[in-house]
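Hi support team,

I'm filing this because I wasn't sure whether my run with flavin-adenine dinucleotide finished correctly. The job status page said complete, but I'd like someone to confirm that the output block is well-formed before I use it downstream. Pasting the exact inputs I used:
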Amino acid sequence: MQRFDVVVVGAGTGGCTVARRLSSQGFNVCLVDYKDEASIGDKVCGDAIGKHHFDDLGLEYPRGDELERVILGVKIYSPDMETTFYIAGEKLHGFMINRHIFGQRLLREALNAGATLLDSTKVVEPVIEDGYLRGVVAKPVKSSESVELRGEVVVDASGASAAVRSKLPPEMGVETKISREDMIVAYREIREVKETPPEPDFCNIYLNLEVAPGGYYWIFPKGDMRVNVGLGVVASSLRNPKELLYRHVFRRLHRELFEGSSLVHGGGGLVPTRRPLDSFVGNGFVAIGDAACHVNPIHGGGIGPSMVGGTIAADVISKVLEVGKPSREELWPINVMYMQRYGAKQAGLDVFRIFLQGLTDDLLNYGMRYRLVKEEDVLRASLGEELHLNITEVTGRIFRGMGRLPFLNRLRRMAKLLKEAKAICQDYPASPESFPKWKVRVQEVFEKAKGLVE
Ligand SMILES: Cc1cc2nc3c(=O)[nH]c(=O)nc-3n(C[C@H](O)[C@H](O)[C@H](O)COP(=O)(O)OP(=O)(O)OC[C@H]3O[C@@H](n4cnc5c(N)ncnc54)[C@H](O)[C@@H]3O)c2cc1C
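And here is everything the job wrote out:
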């Protein structure tokens, strides 16, 4: 048995952040990952991250080999490709990164701060005693002998697999299962192309529910004639994203770009695209990052939020360990602070995500063509501000003419629910006592949001 102050499961972006911050305050932290040290950070990803995350977290911008391209914004295409939204502005500047090198930088920072790395070691189950999580059982990949890693707090930062959270008993008070309707299964490739796509400073997002049911496909230009191209579908659709990518994107819709291109790397992954878990703390337990559904539900970006979660978790854990027992109640401020900083915005966008997934390509085409939400309002909404609708007399007449007036009413109701979901999450209970009542409020809003889907 090995003892630490804190055991962090998963050395991804969230895990390295929490480990670095706690180690630099003098805590004895074990960072455990089933990948070998050199492979840590090498994750299948879209590789795009907003510059604002670096500003907010005080992280150095990527440079050298870690930086593949500076991004000025996002172009969103309607399913019929007739309408393009340019979502640009200083707050949307970002980076295409080399994910592996970025992950290695975060790992190095955690180790330099004093964290102990246990690599090539898989966490298999939690150790629970007297209603507290006391540690985890882990198995080195190349050995049959298990080790027990004990900590005052265990942080589950193991990504979408949620290696610890998914095995907790109900009395921990944390959801263990995520609905397949709230997960995206994605497949992406890095490809070397013959010609750089036009406007390579923009990431391209293509809405097309026929090609990518419940999700979207993307083409993000990287450096050196490479592109990051991928497709995600809602997991409950049971569709194969790789097959859809090849059939529709490579062989049909973007044939010219991909003809003669060569594969550099391909792989798949899961993204939880919903509001954060209602609570992600328990006695001796905290979940962050994908393991806590800290992901933007609209575009699936989770690198930034995982580091926000890691920062908040470290700051609260350090205070709690200095004064007493890491009970659910003492760790509760992690829920409150995350909800206020990012979770409320996530909840609002989750209402929008549910609504969008229930539309048809025709409605998306018309909605974009008549700019029911204007480009500048998409930008504001993506930054967490209110969603303004652009429903005018003219659009009212057009949609009435199409027999689609009820759609405009549903859109209005969705915008109202989005605001409500955000407000409820901003009003997150200060302690666990009023949590059950709060949970009812949030569930009611999401039931209504699901009711808006045709
Ligand atoms: C195809 C795809 C495209 C994406 N594109 C983007 C994008 O462009 N921008 C963006 O911001 N986000 C993107 N995301 C989401 C983003 O990758 C995640 O939200 C982010 O990596 C979450 O960080 P994390 O630290 O929670 O988990 P991860 O980065 O997934 O790290 C988890 C770590 O835990 C380890 N681990 C897992 N299970 C165990 C276990 N049992 N024992 C020990 N170790 C374990 C893993 O090896 C891994 O190192 C994408 C995701 C996918 C799948």
